[in-house]
């Protein structure tokens, strides 16, 4: 945006960026002054709550007129992005000035911050994120409080006073008050605690709480008293100690009750320092904290200890401190007094979270998938005792990670396979085939129950690998179409899963068993579920994480469900809530990630430049461009009814109209060569079968092929005589079949090997079929003649799927595992194929590179229509809550 002129502001340079805004220096051309413009980041610009919070920041700060608070001039909107016009502060943050501030200056800065906070608190505004990064020191020495993005209006009439409650702690680790760490409501006294932390650091150069990781830091804030500043710097006056330590009192009622009082106390100290006096504030008792010893100091101290005959006492003390330290660790046997601890885990640098975070059964490690800026996805593992997450090599494109019961291994789905890997890294091992996995669970007896595809029942397989066995069958009475997201109960025999059905009201959490075909509906809800000791069923309802008492031994629910967290990430397109729980009281969930799942059809040129948006965004999936390029048929999911119907978009008029009207799901549209008919699959009985309908919308659907296993169309031969379709066969997995539209119309297999053959397209002359197969261990694109003769040619290199042909047949396009659109020159001559080297065109944001109907090419080969994601991933952090049931017990 540098150099652009927005409204009457010319942007000069970027000043900085953070979680709630990007700040630019700009010239106000109307009033001829320098200002700062703060924009909501593009990746969260579509979020209503973030916009409301951004407006709240402007309103909160603009209500203040104080020299120690940054002045807000205006709030405007540009291209859908809100921005605040604020005073340009020529200076540095307090963090940047650290080390160059004298003691006298530190006292003056503390007074100014306290005065600014006092002015805000008088207006009913709580900042909630006081830290050095949010304090600017101007060149003239004036300190100003910045960034009221986390402010909370205390007015009871405010309609947005709970916008910042996202089911997790709000604030910055190290500077939060005990009540913020525990997720409780924060009033002005929370700011006073944060001010105390800031003053402590300002006067001593150290933070009062020094946990080696977030969990330990949170524990110290809640449970440990800060040592006197004089124990860090002996020359600090005990009376100044008293001022700061009173701000750091754990209980809000024992804390200094107003920022104004902090200012008065600091001013009194400044005025009376150097003179003998009796302060009205009693000095705080000297609380002992063991000194931090370097490795060089320890031998010297021990040698001195030997000489003074006190070595046994020191050894005893060290052992005692060690035992005490271990007892503080939550992940050991916790006492009833341990508080609930909350912290967040940000995505690794230059990545976003596209899916569910999974806590290990022992509660010690967190696994998650993270997507980088190039579109590649890896599984990462982060010990909760560490600030660093580590990517697992070999998990490119992996999804739905799940833990082994001993927390040693991770299972996941990748390239049509179910795999496993050591959580510390190592080679991946294939367990079995799983064309389009939808979740898995691992028993303590070494049995893995998993959903191999987006349709059908669950299967079971040994953790050592082998041929999976059918485990559950769809309930046709409830019109089920998918069993997914299984989760073992503690006995390792029974498991929970989501029975997805049509209409949406039939969706349910179901109890199944390895020992019986009996299936018991527990709860009508559209969400995955997990069991959390000592006895709760967790699931998502309307973006809230709910808990309901559940007797795992009897398999019975009791009582009423109640919310335990809000704004939970939820992918509506696959009915997946982003949460998990350990066996010892750890809970983790994504904040808002994938909550909408909106997608948009977009035209791109061959360089990846966006040209035009097509139609309205929403839950859009499979689409097909008509042969004359005047219409687009696509599947849209209705957010209210959850029906999945085909719609028709008129590209010339820009209008959309519903094409199918039956309850259930219609998808995978395929145009006839002349554009007069539309082929698709429909599942009114719970099984997807091939149907066709006149493209004008007249008449009703015609059943072309009825089958007891799912069928879905892939392409129509150029001469209109054959339909290429996929068939999910339990014995041979996914195969390619041909349906003749003349003669006896008896379908026959085109490819039905032991491998998964998935997606396929006829060449423009009808003599070849390009398809994807995992016969090599991962999906690659191949070409074979039609009808099948000898010879097969691999087109892709390094993985690929969803191939299509250019209209002249001289180019093959496919999607790579990192979702890049690839191009390969091809030449068909003499019954063989000559292919060039694959070249990347541009990165896409399709939902899955292996699925068909995610992109299309124009007749002239210069443009591509792509179903691109809008909110398919999140930069919001993962929330982690330890000992979460303690809150439930209190209630």
Topology, element by element:
Blueprint: E1 5-6, E2 9-18, E3 21-28, E4 33-39, H1 48-62, E5 72-78, E6 81-87, E7 91-93, H2 94-97, H3 103-122, E8 125-126, E9 135-138, E10 143-145, E11 152-153, H4 178-181, H5 188-204, H6 214-223, H7 238-247, H8 259-272, H9 297-307, H10 311-328, E12 341-345, E13 351-352, E14 358-359, E15 365-372, E16 377-383, E17 390-391, E18 399-403, E19 409-414, E20 417-422, E21 429-433, E22 440-442, E23 447-450, E24 459-462, E25 469-470, E26 480-488, E27 494-501, E28 508-513, E29 516-523, E30 529-532, E31 536-541, E32 544-551, E33 556-557, E34 562-565, E35 570-571, E36 576-577, E37 579-581, E38 586-590, E39 599-605, E40 610-618, E41 620-625, E42 631-637, E43 644-650, E44 655-658, E45 666-671, E46 677-682, E47 689-694, E48 702-705, E49 711-716, E50 722-729, E51 733-740, E52 748-751, E53 757-762, E54 768-773, E55 780-785, E56 793-794, E57 801-805, E58 811-815, E59 820-829, E60 832-835, E61 839-843, E62 855-857, E63 863-869, E64 878-882, H11 885-890
Antiparallel strand pairs: 1-2, 2-3, 3-4, 4-6, 5-6, 7-9, 8-11, 9-10, 12-64, 13-15, 14-15, 15-16, 16-17, 18-19, 19-20, 20-21, 22-23, 23-24, 24-25, 26-27, 27-28, 28-29, 30-31, 31-32, 32-33, 32-34, 35-36, 37-38, 38-64, 39-40, 39-63, 41-42, 42-43, 43-44, 45-46, 46-47, 47-48, 49-50, 50-51, 51-52, ...
Helix pairs in contact: 3-5, 3-8, 5-7, 7-8
């Amino acid at each position: 945006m540098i150099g652009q002129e927005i409204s009457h502001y010319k942007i000069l340079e970027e000043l900085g960026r953070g979680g709630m805004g990007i700040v630019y220096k700009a010239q106000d051309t109307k009033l001829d002054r320098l200002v700062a413009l703060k924009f909501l980041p593009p990746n969260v610009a579509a979020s209503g709550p973030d916009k409301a919070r951004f407006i709240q920041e402007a309103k909160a700060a603009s209500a203040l007129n104080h020299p120690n608070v940054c002045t807000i001039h205006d709030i405007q909107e540009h291209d859908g992005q809100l921005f605040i016009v604020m005073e340009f502060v020529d200076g540095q943050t307090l963090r940047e000035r650290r080390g160059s501030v004298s003691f006298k200056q530190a006292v003056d800065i503390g007074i100014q911050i306290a005065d600014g906070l006092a002015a805000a608190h008088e207006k009913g505004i709580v900042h909630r994120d006081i830290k050095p990064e949010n304090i600017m020191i101007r060149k003239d020495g004036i300190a100003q409080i910045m960034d009221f993005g986390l402010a909370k209006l205390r007015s009871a009439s405010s309609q947005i006073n709970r916008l910042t409650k996202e089911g997790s702690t709000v604030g910055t680790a190290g500077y939060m008050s005990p009540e913020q760490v525990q997720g409780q409501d924060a009033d002005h006294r929370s700011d006073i605690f944060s001010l105390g932390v800031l003053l402590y650091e300002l006067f001593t150069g150290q933070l009062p709480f020094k946990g080696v990781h977030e969990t330990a830091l949170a524990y110290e804030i809640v449970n440990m008293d800060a040592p006197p500043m004089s124990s860090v710097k002996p020359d600090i006056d005990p009376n100044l100690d008293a001022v700061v330590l009173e701000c750091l009192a754990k209980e809000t009622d024992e804390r200094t009750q107003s920022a104004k009082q902090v200012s008065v106390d600091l001013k009194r100290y400044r005025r009376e320092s150097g003179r003998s006096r009796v302060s009205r504030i009693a000095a705080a008792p000297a609380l002992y904290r063991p000194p931090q010893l370097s490795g060089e100091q320890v031998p010297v101290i021990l040698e001195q200890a030997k000489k003074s005959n006190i070595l046994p006492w020191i050894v005893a003390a060290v052992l005692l401190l060690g035992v005490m330290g271990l007892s503080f660790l939550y992940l050991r046997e916790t006492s009833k007094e341990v508080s609930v601890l909350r912290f967040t885990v940000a995505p690794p640098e230059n990545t976003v979270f596209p899916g569910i975070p999974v806590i290990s059964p022992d509660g010690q490690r967190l696994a998650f998938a993270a997507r980088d800026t190039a579109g590649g996805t890896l599984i990462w593992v982060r010990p909760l005792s560490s600030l660093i997450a580590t990517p697992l090599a070999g998990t490119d494109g992996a999804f739905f990670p799940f833990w082994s019961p001993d927390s040693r291994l991770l299972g996941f789905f990748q390239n049509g396979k179910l795999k496993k890997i050591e959580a510390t890294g190592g080679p991946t091992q294939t367990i079995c085939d799983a064309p389009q996995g939808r979740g898995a669970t691992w028993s303590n007896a070494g049995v893995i129950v998993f959903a191999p595809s987006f349709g059908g029942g669950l299967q079971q397989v040994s953790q050592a690998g082998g041929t999976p066995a059918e485990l559950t069958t769809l309930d046709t009475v409830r019109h089920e179409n998918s069993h997914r997201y299984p989760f073992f109960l503690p006995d390792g025999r029974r498991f929970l899963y989501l029975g997805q059905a049509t209409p949406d009201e039939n969706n349910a959490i179901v109890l199944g068993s390895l020992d019986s075909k009996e299936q018991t509906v527990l709860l009508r809800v559209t969400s995955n579920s997990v069991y959390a000791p000592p006895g709760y069923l967790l699931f998502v309802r309307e973006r809230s994480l709910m808990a309901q008492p559940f007797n795992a031994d009897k398999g019975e629910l009791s009582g009423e469900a109640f919310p335990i967290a809000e704004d939970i990430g939820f992918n509506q397109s696959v009915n997946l809530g982003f949460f998990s729980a350990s066996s010892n009281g750890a809970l983790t969930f994504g904040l808002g990630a994938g909550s909408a799942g909106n997608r948009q059809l977009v035209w791109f040129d061959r360089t990846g430049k966006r040209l035009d948006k097509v139609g309205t965004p929403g839950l859009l999936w499979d689409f097909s461009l008509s042969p004359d390029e005047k219409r687009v048929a696509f599947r849209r999911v209705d957010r209210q009814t959850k029906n999945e119907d085909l719609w028709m978009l008129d590209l010339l008029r820009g209008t959309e109209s519903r094409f199918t009207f039956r309850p259930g799901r219609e998808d995978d549209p395929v145009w006839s060569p002349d554009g007069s008919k539309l082929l698709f699959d429909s599942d009114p009985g719970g099984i997807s079968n091939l149907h066709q309908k006149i493209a004008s919308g007249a008449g009703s659907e015609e059943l072309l092929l009825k089958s007891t296993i799912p069928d879905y169309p892939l392409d129509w031969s150029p001469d209109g005589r054959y339909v290429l379709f996929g068939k999910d066969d339990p014995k041979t997995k996914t195969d390619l079949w041909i349906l003749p539209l003349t003669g006896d119309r008896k379908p026959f297999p085109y490819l039905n090997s032991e491998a998964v053959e998935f997606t396929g397209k006829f060449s423009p002359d009808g003599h070849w079929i390009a398809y994807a197969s995992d016969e090599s261990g991962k999906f690659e694109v191949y070409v074979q003649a039609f009808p099948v003769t000898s010879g097969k040619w691999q087109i892709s290199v390094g993985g690929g799927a969803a191939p299509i042909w250019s209209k002249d047949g001289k180019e093959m396009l496919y999607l790579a595992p990192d979702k890049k659109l690839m191009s390969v020159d091809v030449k068909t001559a003499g019954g063989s194929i000559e292919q060039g080297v694959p070249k990347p065109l541009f990165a896409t944001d399709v939902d899955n590179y292996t699925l068909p109907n995610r992109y299309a090419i124009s007749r002239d080969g210069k443009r591509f229509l792509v179903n691109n994601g809008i909110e398919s991933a999140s930069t919001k952090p993962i929330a982690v809550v330890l000992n979460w049931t303690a809150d439930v017990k209190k209630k």
